[in-house]
Fold:
Amino acid sequence: MNLILLGPPGAGKGTQAELIIERFNIPHISTGDIFRAAIKEGTPLGVKAKEYLDSGQLVPDEIVVGIVQERLKQNDCKSGFLLDGFPRTIPQADVLGEFLKGLKQNITAVINIEVDFEVLMARITGRRLCRNCGAVYHIQNKREKTEGVCDHCGGEIYQRDDDLPETVKKRLQVYQNQTEPLISYYSEKQILKSFDGQEPIAVLFQKICDALEG
Ligand code: AP5
Structure:
């Protein structure tokens, strides 16, 4: 199964990704996680990406597409993958389509998670993550059992630098201008499946599974 997760910042893509990859046994390819790991390691990619992430802008298409293509060529993607946060622009989607055509593959479904913009700000500013395994928490609706310690791996819980209100506003604008057009793009290809992202996490996950398995 070759899947794409689409939705604004804070829609719950990362949260659903954790569940989907376990259920369908496919690798999780999150471009945001790739950039954050590169920033943490201080690689040349990380140095370049940091200014874009910190200001809430998209990393230029020519940088992102090369990274995703390299990742999709790896063996673990042969029997499927879940792309989270890619594509984010029409040119990225066009390149992905052509690249998969070359591999005689296609996208099985695009899972579009919809959430009202007023809800997103509270979700993102309350989000906390594990520095080690990336597990997602929230100060109100998904707390870790022991404060500051990840339930899964014991890693340290932290807040992302780009989750501060001013940067979140910018990210939401960028989503509306550059990423939202992908909804019509994939709808026209008849592979878009849209879901109400304001349902509880488990209910939403069940609906996604029903749609993919049905
Ligand atoms: P990225 O890391 O992809 O961030 P994003 O798309 O902005 O998405 P988020 O990670 O903020 O949110 P999410 O939808 O995963 O929500 P989550 O599950 O955490 O990208 C970061 C940056 O990298 C970009 O700004 C850009 O600079 C760059 N970048 C990445 N990809 C790129 C690309 N292709 N091209 C160019 N640049 C790129 O949930 C949020 C919170 O809500 C959590 O606390 C969670 O517990 C809670 N929650 C989740 N679901 C529910 C629910 N159903 N009910 C209640 N609470 C919920």
Summary: Residues 7, 9-15, 31-32, 35, 52-53, 56-59, 64, 85-86, 88, 92, 123-124, 126-127, 136-138, 141-142, 171, 197, 199-201, 204 surround BIS(adenosine)-5'-pentaphosphate (CB under 6 Å).
